[in-house]
C-alpha cells in the first residue's frame, strides 16, 4: 500500500472572521499561546508520517514561508548568548530543506479549487489534507489515527466529530450507514446543509486522506454551497467509485476560524502546555476572580 507522505495545507483564506487581527498577519500565523496555529497542524502531520508539505497560499501570506525558513541572525545570536533551549525550539520549527512547497491559489473559488491547485506537486499518490483553521488536541495525532484506518482499509478517510444539531449548517456533514468502532461507512456527504435537512450531526473536521482521483473530479466540479467549488461535493462523487470511511477520532477539535473558537484553543493549549500549563491555569483562575 502506498505510504501517505505528502499533505496539502490550504492557507489562502483572508481570515475575515478574525479581523482586524488578520489585516496584515495571516490567521495561520496568529499565536495560539506560544506558537503560531500552523505549527500545531504541521506537528500533527509530522507525527502521522508526513514528509512533504504543500501550502496553497495567496497574497500577503509570505510570513508563513519565512516562519519555516532558517533565521540565520536569530539563530547565531541565540547561539552566541548560550540560549540553547530556545535555540533548539527555534531550530525544530525548520523542516528539512526541500520538504515544503508553496503554490498560489490565484482566486478565492473555494476549498475544492484550493486543493486542485496542488495537483501537480501531489501527483497521483494518496495524500493528506489538513485545514489549519482546525487544531485538534489529542493524545495520538488525529491524522495518525486516520492513517491507521487507511492502512487497514486502503480507502479514502475523513475525520468527523459530533456538533450541536443547530450548527450543522457551518460544516460538511456525512450521511452514515453503519459503525465499526470509530470507523463509519457512509452513503454520502453534503456541504453546509440546512439544519432541518442534515443527514446527521457528524461534521467533517478538516482532516482528509484522499486518493489522487479526487483531482480529476475537482477539475470539473461545479460550484456548490456559497457559490464555491466544494471539496465535499467532489468527495461525494469519489465515494461512488471508491471505498470511503469516516473516523470519529479521539480528541477535541478547536475551530480557530472564529474569535471565540480561537480564544478556546488558546486557553486549552495554554492550560495543557508541558512547562507552563499549571501557571497558565493559575493565571486564568486569577483573571476569573477579578
Ligand atoms: C470547510 C469544509 C467543511 C468542513 C469545515 C471544517 O468549511 O468545507 O466541509 O466541515 O471546513 O472546519 P469552511 O470552514 O472552510 O467553511
CATH superfamily: Spore Coat Polysaccharide Biosynthesis Protein SpsA, Chain A
> How many extended strands?
13
Shape: globular
CATH fold-level topology: Spore Coat Polysaccharide Biosynthesis Protein SpsA, Chain A
Side-by-side strand order of the widest sheet: 5-4-1-6-11-8-12-10-9
- DSSP summary: helix tally: 11
Computed Rg: 19 Å
The averaged pLDDT comes out at 95
What is the first-to-last residue Cα distance? 57 Å
Strand content: 15-25%
**Any guess at the CATH architecture?**
Alpha-Beta Complex
Question: Largest sheet, described in full?
Answer: 9 strands, mixed
Instruction: Supply the CATH class.
Output: Alpha Beta
User: Which structural category fits the helices and strands?
Assistant: alpha/beta
Structure ligands: 1-O-phosphono-alpha-D-glucopyranose
Order of helices and strands: EEEHEHHHEHHEEHEEEEHHEEHH
Number of domains: 1
Q: Percent of residues in helical segments?
A: 25-40%
- Which spans of ≥5 residues are poorly predicted at pLDDT below 50? none
Write structural notes for this entry.
The N and C termini lie far apart (57 Å). Helix 10 crosses helix 11. The model has no long low-confidence stretch (mean pLDDT 95). The chain has a single domain (6-288), classed as Alpha-Beta Complex (Spore Coat Polysaccharide Biosynthesis Protein SpsA, Chain A), CATH 3.90.550.10. The chain has helices spanning 37-47, 62-67, 72-80, 84-92, 111-116, 119-122, 142-153, 214-219, 231-238, 259-271, 277-289; strands at 6-10, 31-32, 35-36, 52-57, 100-104, 127-130, 134-137, 156-162, 172-180, 183-191, 202-210, 244-248, 252-255. Strand 9 and strand 10 form a beta hairpin. The protein contains 11 helices and 13 strands. The protein is an alpha/beta fold and 290 residues long. The strands form 3 sheets. It has a 9-stranded mixed β-sheet with strand order 5-4-1-6-11-8-12-10-9. It has a two-stranded antiparallel sheet with strand order 2-3. A two-stranded antiparallel ribbon has the order 7-13. Bound molecules: 1-O-phosphono-alpha-D-glucopyranose. 1-O-phosphono-alpha-D-glucopyranose binds at residues 111, 131, 133-134, 171-172, 191, 203-204, 206, 231-232, 255, 257.
